[in-house]
Design goal:
This protein is of the alpha+beta class. It is built from 3 helices and 10 strands. It has 2 domains: 93 residues, no CATH class; 53 residues, no CATH class.
């Protein structure tokens, strides 16, 4: 009889918060988030699609072997091509396949954050570019989700105003309505 040991590494990246990885060797994992002031990150464009997460976090899940070309724009050229979104620079990536690798859903996982914002206020939910209520999000089948991006702090407020005060969860589905 063979016994296999499975190690799970959970990586979290949230705008305005530091990135970390946690190895799950027990049933309970403590998660700590710490704030950063790094909001001026370059805009990332992958195959012509603007990524909601800026900087290197937008590359997560992108296979380096699938990259055909990378162009970097800064200064006046970035602003000329991308408007005010390009004020912190732009990284434009073209993949060989012309499409992002889809996410795969293996299990339903619930995450509860304690201590980050104990007011329990609901974030703003965006589904395929439209503001929706939390109950609509709960009806989404996990395998129909293409991407999920989370914005918090100054970044959420700068993009969505006071509605983004409790954070923003941006969900793009594989099949657009």
């Amino acid at each position: 009889m063979k016994i296999y040991r499975c190690i799970t590494v959970i990586v979290f990246t949230i705008i305005s918060l530091s990135t970390f990885a946690q190895t799950d060797s027990t049933k309970t994992t403590a998660i700590r988030l710490s704030g950063t002031d790094k909001i001026s990150e370059p805009l990332v464009i992958i195959d012509g699609n603007k990524q909601y997460i800026r900087g290197s976090a937008a590359f997560n899940g992108l296979d380096p072997a699938n990259i055909e070309s990378i162009n970097v724009f800064k200064g006046d050229k970035a602003i000329q091509n991308y408007g005010s979104d390009g004020s912190d620079g732009v990284i434009s990536i073209k993949t060989k396949s012309g499409k992002l690798t889809p996410l795969s859903v293996k299990d339903n996982i619930s995450l509860y954050f304690k201590g980050l914002n104990t007011s329990l206020k609901t974030p703003l939910y965006i589904l395929d570019g439209n503001i929706v209520e939390e109950k609509s999000i709960k009806l989404i089948k996990p395998d129909s989700i293409s991407t999920v991006n989370i914005l918090s702090g100054k970044k959420a407020i700068s993009l969505y105003g006071i509605r983004g005060n409790n954070g923003v969860v941006i969900i793009n589905s594989k099949i657009k309505p």
